[in-house]
Write a structure and sequence with these properties.
alpha/beta, FAD/NAD(P)-binding domain, five-stranded parallel β-sheet, 21 strands, globular
Length: about 500
């Protein structure tokens, strides 16, 4: 007979969203169990030590909105120790074989030249100073750009928009709508500089793990959830199996929070015999699957009525390269966008913020590029070709590849496309979602994960609470600080 334990909340997945959710419910005095199939927490926001370097599992040790962002605000509210090194510059740009460091937006004129910079100001004004017009609301980002500038006559400007999209969203211009780009761009300017976590993302995950365990959470690593149980139309707990021993347990709880994405969650729910797959309790998950056109388990296909769909919808994916360099390549804390490469969108040198992220005497670089096809070997060769463009004869001698890794589909989890988000509520009473797939519009990566937890708390507490957990966005006027210099860091950083 399976061991049976009682809790107030069971969290599936000990990624960032799962750990933040657990910390929030522990803060409310509730009994919490966390189930994680891997031997470590953190998901794609942690790192492993390899040859003395902190190799990140998914993120580049970076918080997109730095100390002013929603993740940093939640960490402060939870009392989780952390330190973030904000970017010192707007960005730098590798163009025409050299690197240009831009402390402010105005200094982009040196990269783009007078004519392209004038076009940049015109397009930036349209994005930041007005809402999308009715005819723009259904346009993809590429359709919007192609109607206004030419890649042939404005190559650096077109590459600027393209590479920021690839680096920040891991999708191509065809795969995201223009209004989503507007919201994301506004947030990037309102919140301010991205930042690198001191100690890397593993240090932050470690502090969160210690916080939830000290708070009394039952953290079960190397455990698979086999079924999300239901009783009378509501969740009643989860069945789990230890990967090392095969022992099974029933964790009973009136609330289950899933951090493994809508699709994986859907597969775990025990559907009553005769129930329609895409109706009732699983409406939200079915809607997500229909948008992404992902085949259902067992050979079924998506669509509200189970009809077949053979045209796949792009999902966010990318290839990341960790490099060790004998010399510093990027002379600042921040992102170097690559405007003269074929595939690599940007490079970060996190060891500028914390030398412990690289072995002694070395510098850690992380590149990111969009995956354009299914052949991983082709993608890797494209990365190597770009690295030779960037570093010349130093590539392979002074600059060497440490690891290459790709992400797509369901691993790492929650790889939902920007703007393809679902509600925390699933339609099954007591079953909720957090994570990348639940991020509100305009919020990137881990900032979106933190906002998904805020959205969950707002959903649970309802409209009667004095103030919502999801805070208002910073005022628009903050964006203008980037014209001359980066906004100052948060005073509590």
């Amino acid at each position: 007979m399976a061991d049976t334990r009682d809790y107030d909340v069971v969290v599936i997945g000990a990624g960032l969203g799962g750990l933040l959710s657990a910390a929030q419910f522990l803060r409310r005095g509730q009994r919490v169990a966390i189930v994680e199939r891997l031997a470590h927490p953190g998901g794609r926001f942690t790192a492993k030590t390899f040859h003395g370097a902190q190799v990140s599992t998914g993120a580049v040790h970076m918080l997109p909105f730095g100390t002013n962002g929603e993740l940093a605000a939640m960490l402060r509210a939870l009392g989780v120790p952390h330190h973030i090194h904000d970017s010192e510059v707007f960005a730098s740009f590798h163009a025409r074989g050299r690197q240009y460091v831009c402390r402010s937006v105005l200094q982009l004129a040196r990269v783009l030249g007078p004519r392209q910079f004038a076009e940049f100001v015109r397009l930036g004004g349209a994005m930041l100073l007005r809402q999308p017009l009715p005819e723009e609301r259904g346009q993809t980002y590429r359709e919007w750009l192609d109607s206004r500038i030419s890649r042939a006559t404005s190559p650096e400007l077109y590459a600027y928009f393209e590479r920021v999209c690839h680096f920040a969203l891991s999708v191509d211009l065809d795969d995201v709508l223009y209004p989503e780009i507007v919201e994301t761009t506004k947030n990037m300017f309102r919140y301010g500089a991205p930042g690198i976590v001191d100690g890397g993302c593993a240090a932050l995950t470690g502090e969160l793990e210690r916080r939830v365990v000290a708070g009394g959470a039952d953290l079960r690593l190397q455990h698979d959830v086999t079924t999300i149980e239901q009783a009378d139309g509501a969740v009643s707990g989860v069945r789990v199996r230890a990967k090392t021993t095969g022992d099974e347990a029933l964790l009973r709880a009136p609330m289950v929070i899933s951090n493994i994405g809508p699709w994986a969650t859907r597969r775990l729910v025990a559907i009553p015999e005769g129930a329609a797959v895409a109706a009732g309790a699983l409406a939200a998950q079915a809607a997500q699957a229909a948008r992404e056109r992902i085949p259902l388990p067992g050979g079924e296909h998506d669509g509200p009525s189970g009809t077949e769909s053979t045209v796949p919808r792009a999902v966010a994916s990318g290839l990341k390269v960790h490099l060790l360099s004998d010399e510093s390549i990027i002379p600042h804390r921040g992102i170097m966008y690559c405007l003269d490469t074929e595939r690599i969108a940007g490079v970060v040198q996190p060891s500028n913020s914390d030398r412990r992220l690289a072995p002694p005497g070395k510098h850690l670089l992380i590149t990111h590029q969009l995956m354009r096809g299914e052949d991983v070997n082709v993608e890797r060769e494209a990365a190597r070709a770009d690295l030779r463009r960037l570093f010349g004869d130093d590539f392979g001698t002074k600059v060497t590849i440490l690891t290459m890794s790709q992400y797509r589909g369901e691993w790492p989890v929650n790889r939902a496309m920007q703007g393809e988000d679902v509600s925390p509520a699933t339609g099954v009473a007591g079953l909720y979602l957090v994570g990348d797939a639940v991020k509100p519009s305009g919020y990137l990566m881990v900032e979106g994960v933190a906002q998904s937890v805020n959205a969950l708390l707002d959903t649970l507490d309802g409209p009667a609470i004095p103030a919502p957990h999801t805070p208002p966005k910073p005022p628009k006027r903050r964006a203008f600080r980037w014209l001359v210099a980066p906004p100052p860091p948060h005073p509590g950083s």
